[in-house]
Automatic annotation (TrEMBL):
BP terms from Gene Ontology: galactose metabolic process
Enzyme class: transferase
Protein name: Galactokinase
Family, similarity comment: Belongs to the GHMP kinase family. GalK subfamily.
Residues covered by the GHMP kinase C-terminal domain: 298-382
Segments forming domain Galactokinase N-terminal: 25-71
Amino acid sequence: MTSQEINSYTGPLADLVQRLAETFIAENSSPPEWIVAAPGRVNLIGEHIDYNDGFVLPMAIERYIVIAAAKSDSDEAVVNLRSVNMDQVAQLDLTKVPEPSLPPKWHSYIEGVFAGFMKKIGADASSKLPAMNLLLESNVPLGGGLSSSAALEVATATLLEAVTGVAMGLDEKALLCQKAEHDFAGVPCGIMDQFSSVFGQENAFMLLDCRSQELKHVPFSSDNISVLITNTNVKHELSGGEYGQRRSQCDSALKKLGADSWRNVTMAQVEAAKDQLGDVEFRRARHVVTEIDRTWKAAKAIESGQWDELGEMMYASHASLKDDYEVSCEELDLLVELANSIGSQGGVYGSRMTGGGFGGCTVTLVESTKVAEVTAEMEKQYQEKTGIEPHSFASRPAIGAHRIK
């Protein structure tokens, strides 16, 4: 990018785009031919039900992965990759479709997208994909449950569309990226993360039906409300395969209930089958059924501007994740308690853990004029009680993956 092009770009991405373009020029002695961006996401409500036919209510956040690229002068059909954040390099051979390798590496997500895209375009892959230099940088916090991996996958797919002129449908792109994470990172994720990064819109949440893959944008036009994301900066390493364990417990409970989908199960049925389910599966089932209901109602509350009602649902969601699904931790619980103690009189409507759990982030609904005050108070008390410095930022719903140059 020329200085004029860099300076003409405005918005939340401006600093990141300018810095990356300048770094690319410094390292390659020429400007990038393509620049693309894809956002991370935060889920307002609807946790651990994406793989249980539920609803989720995420938004793309104003934190992005940006990739700058240009054709290289190399005679070899290779893509040279460099991550600014990790200060690591890798190389991808374009003469063959990449294969998964274990353990996954930072560039495995990129390889997975290349593999899916090369299979899509078939025999023309080698002629349509030139030797390239790729440079990427991110301001999506890593390890905080804000889907930095999905952002990397979606940014890569968006770049490949730009380079080849082969456009994918939005659903198709999201599903290709999900498959990349399944096959190359070994993570059996649901569809929420990639769909959020692809379909994000400014000033709108996304109500995603994880059974039908139908997505509805829910307008969030009030400038008086902000979404505060606070990273505990902890991630507890667990040895029991808790994610897979929760999925199998839900599958077992659903089978005992004699239903083919959690969408067809009521709390009355769960209560009636309490003895048959046993304590653990009963609590897992109660979370799934109540969280599906909460998420649907939360979308309605946003549409009607019922922020107090939405906040109560967020607190109820956290309690369910803590007690029934058992995926929270002391640090997450502390942040939610701190938000609750500030309360509506201090500008806080509601708060809950977001993401897979056992660490990561909370999401808090705050009056926009009180964000700085609430952030300072929560961070101060959290650090005093844990000795850990948290990281917070407020975001509006942001635009999804797009080409910048």
